[in-house]
Amino acid sequence: xxxxxxxxxxxxxxxxxxxxxxxxxxxxxxxxxxxxxxxxxxxxxxxxxxxxxxxxxxxxxxxxxxxxxxxxxxxxxxxxxxxxxxxxxxxxxxxxxxxxxxxxxxxxxxxxxxxxxxxxxxxxxxxxxxxxxxxxxxxxxxxxxxxxxxxxxxxxxxxxxxxxxxxxxxxxxxxxxxxxxxxxxxxxxxxxxxxxxxxxxxxxxxxxxxxxxxxxxxxxxxxxxxxxxxxxxxxxxxxxxxxxxxxxxxxxxxxxxxxxxxxxxxxxxxxxxxxxxxxxxxxxxxxxxxxxxxxxxxxxxxxxxxxxxxxxxxxxxxxxxxxxxxxxxxxxxxxxxxxxxx
Length: 342
Prior knowledge:
Elements: E1 3-4, H1 5-12, E2 15-17, E3 23-24, E4 26-27, E5 37-41, E6 57-61, E7 71-74, H2 77-92, E8 104-105, E9 110-111, E10 116-117, E11 122-123, E12 128-129, E13 134-135, E14 140-141, E15 146-147, E16 152-153, E17 158-159, E18 164-165, E19 170-171, E20 176-179, E21 184-187, E22 190-193, E23 199-202, E24 207-208, E25 213-215, E26 221-224, E27 229-230, E28 235-236, E29 241-242, E30 247-248, E31 253-254, E32 259-260, E33 265-266, E34 271-272, E35 277-278, E36 283-284, E37 289-290, E38 299-301, E39 306-307, H3 308-319, H4 321-341
Parallel strand pairs: 4-5, 5-6, 6-7, 8-11, 9-12, 10-13, 11-14, 12-15, 13-16, 14-17, 15-18, 16-19, 17-20, 18-23, 19-24, 20-25, 23-26, 24-27, 25-28, 26-29, 27-30, 28-31, 29-32, 30-33, 31-34, 32-35, 33-36, 34-37, 36-38
Antiparallel strand pairs: 1-3, 2-7, 21-22, 38-39
């Protein structure tokens, strides 16, 4: 990347303070940056780092005053920096192009314009892939599955039969879409499999991390709403419905038939039982265990999950248990002493 500070400011819709002709040749974190790099500072309370960084320029929030070096003021420094990163990322990553000779494409498969299929991909009969989508080596796409336009699927992803993936979706390596839901009936100690005949439907602009598993519905659909982002190592069970623009962090587990609203955040290792409803804008903190439905706009924590302030009071009381135990023991001794004198 070789861009002037003014050119970068135009890209991120920011305001340059200082020399806008400085040439930027790289990007880095604020502590690691060197001359020629641009970095970012998202919180003004760390403004002292501006005096220490070796970066040639910094993308900041609009409340930064009297900078010691050229800056670009923006409404959202993190988002602006992400746009700058994309300049380098697009230059460095070379996706597969064209249809590799070893790709196996079944009968009646519909390939859109400029579709790329990497080595040893398998596209089963009746599947369809939209324009400009890129399928990396070793991907399996099952019969009658549908992949939308401008979708990027990395190596060793499996998308099983009849599942639907929307436009502008990114799916990282090792993920399985449409595996059977975990359904069994136990009779006389034997577990009999319940057929899972539904599908998974992933809407537009979703990103799914590595080694995620999203189970097909028993009937109907398991749904991931548009704009939702899913981290690595997440398990989503059959018939779960997840709304729009949710953030689901690593090692979350969502049990079957749970309904999650829009703009929900499930932090790392949160676990949700089945057949509950999570309202819009709920935040579930890390390692929480959700055992009942949660109304909209709540922050919950703990196991079982409770409103956060209530849980914090319980945690504080728990920390006081050793001293409380000692106090009760001392009071017991004093009472026994008083009783022995009476």
